[in-house]
Amino acid sequence: MENIALIESFSEFKDDKLIDRVTLMAILEDVFRNALKKKYGEDDNFDIIVNPDKGDLEIWRNRIVVADGEVEDSNREISLTQARKIEPDFEVGEDVSEEVKLVDLGRRAILALRQNLISKIHEHDNTNIYKQFKDLEGEIYTAEVHHIRHRAIILLDDEGNEIVLPKDRQIPSDFFRKGENVRGIIESVELKGNKPTIIMSRTAPGFLEKLFEQEIPEVFDGLITIKKVVRVPGEKAKVAVDSYDDRIDPVGACVGMKGSRIHSIVRELGNENIDVINFTNNEQLFITRALSPAKITSIKMDEEAKTAEVMLKPEEVSKAIGRGGHNIRLAGQLTGYEIDVYREGVEEDVELKEFTDEIEDWVIAEFSKIGLDTAKAVLEQDVDDLVRRTDLEEETIKDVMAVLRSEFEE
Predict the structure, then answer these.
(1) Contacts 24+ apart (CB under 8 A), 355-361
(2) How does strand 152-156 pair with strand 162-166?
(3) Domains of the chain: which residue ranges?
(4) pTM above 0.70, yes or no
(5) Overall fold of domain 3-131
(6) Architecture of domain 204-279
(7) What is the model's pLDDT at position 215?
(8) Nearest Cα to Cα of residue 373 among 345, 334, 399, 338
(9) Cα separation of 378 and 361, whole Å?
């Protein structure tokens, strides 16, 4: 293969990958210098002239003429007799430049050259993709479903870049078909080997925050600030918002008339229930707002330990805890406080952990998961509702209730 033919084959990569002329020349020179090092041991005395636009390449080896029989370094020196075969008037001590043809490198070297070039161009391409998506971390991105696997969905963007949406970054209700467009945030970008791995997420709090920026002009313009977002993806979320302009109601602006503004966000997130809350530096008031829709009677706080004991009327307790304990858990995450709920007017109650000699720890843990930590909290619940909300059998729940009831009957 002649030099020109090799360069013509390389031009495919330039057109396909849109590599600029300077970069391609640098890659070509680097590849050829590596080949020369393997063949001749060094490349310092070689000049490589690359012109990818014209499709030509020249390699020149520079040597010094020495007297016959005095050649010690065949790569840097050439005998007078050999030099005069190139040009008859060469003398000892003069410099000789001789063109090296690719055929001189050998067929195996030429094949290695091509493979090395492909590798270098892919490496350059992957580096550019990595940098491009690294700058997009935390931003919303849209791509098309290309392949559906058990543990992940493989997406392709308009440029053919592969993006992975793992199962645990999908909202539980998500269901996508091949060819559908999917929105999420670019959560992370890593180079594994030379290939970038781009991970998308629809469960990250940042995705909800970016949706607010896209859908609510006041958030996009900076008139409303999102202070914090906490989520149970697909179930419930709480968003604390604030505004430095007293004329703006941040909650009203985010929700809109009859929920008109937030509706598209809720739909995107699989009907996730979103509570928008006015942020305040008054921690007691913030906890009160965070436990919405429950109405609180009083709060006893320990700011150092970051704990809050909240007193509510019995009918407000289930609202404060929420389905599956989501409301109280998210309120705790939003405020940074460990929140315990107590019923107003209940003088005597016993924590479930006091019954470990009669009730197994894993059963107590099941009740705790849904915010039920005391005996009376469990006894106030409906058995069928507890079967639905926990992983416990009906018989187990009835046995537990019998144990708890006996405590108060004594």
Answers:
(1) 355/403, 355/404, 355/407, 358/403, 359/400, 359/403
(2) antiparallel
(3) 3-131, 136-201, 204-279, 352-409
(4) no
(5) N Utilization Substance Protein A; Chain:P; domain 4 (3.30.1480)
(6) 2-Layer Sandwich (3.30)
(7) 92
(8) 338
(9) 15
Please state the CATH superfamily assignment of the domain spanning residues 136-201 in this structure.
Answer: Nucleic acid-binding proteins (2.40.50.140)
Q: Which sign does the torsion angle of CA 163, 167, 171, 174 carry?
A: positive
Residue with tokens 């929105």: 183
- For residues 31 and 9, the answer to whether their CB atoms sit within 8 Å is no
Is residue 356 a contact partner of residue 362, using CB atoms and an 8 Å limit? no
Q: Is the dihedral of CA 96, 109, 3, 44 positive or negative?
A: negative
pLDDT attached to residue 223: 94
| Those residues with Cβ within 8 angstroms of residue 275's Cβ, 6 or more apart along the chain or in another chain | 236, 237, 238, 239, 292, 330
Report the alpha-carbon distance of residue 88 to residue 33 in Å, rounded.
30
Q: Which two tokens stand for residue 143?
A: 């791509």
Token pair in block for residue 228: 């914090």
State the pLDDT at residue 404.
87
Q: What is the pLDDT of residues 34-59, one digit of tens each?
A: 888 887 888 888 888 776 556 567 88
**Residue 57 in tokens:** 């390449």
Burial of 112-139, coded b for 16+ CB within 10 Å and e otherwise, reads bbeebbeebbeebbeeebbeebeeeeee
223: which residues sit within 8 A by CB, 6+ positions away?
Answer: 243, 245, 248, 253
The answer, yes or no, to whether residue 178 has pLDDT greater than 90, is yes
Q: What is the pLDDT of residue 109?
A: 66
Tens of pLDDT, residue by residue over 145-157, are 999 998 999 999 9
pLDDT of residue 1: 40
**Termini Cα distance of the chain:** 99
Give 382-408 pLDDT, tens digit per residue: 888 888 888 899 999 999 999 888 877
Token pair, residue 69, equals: 């029989």
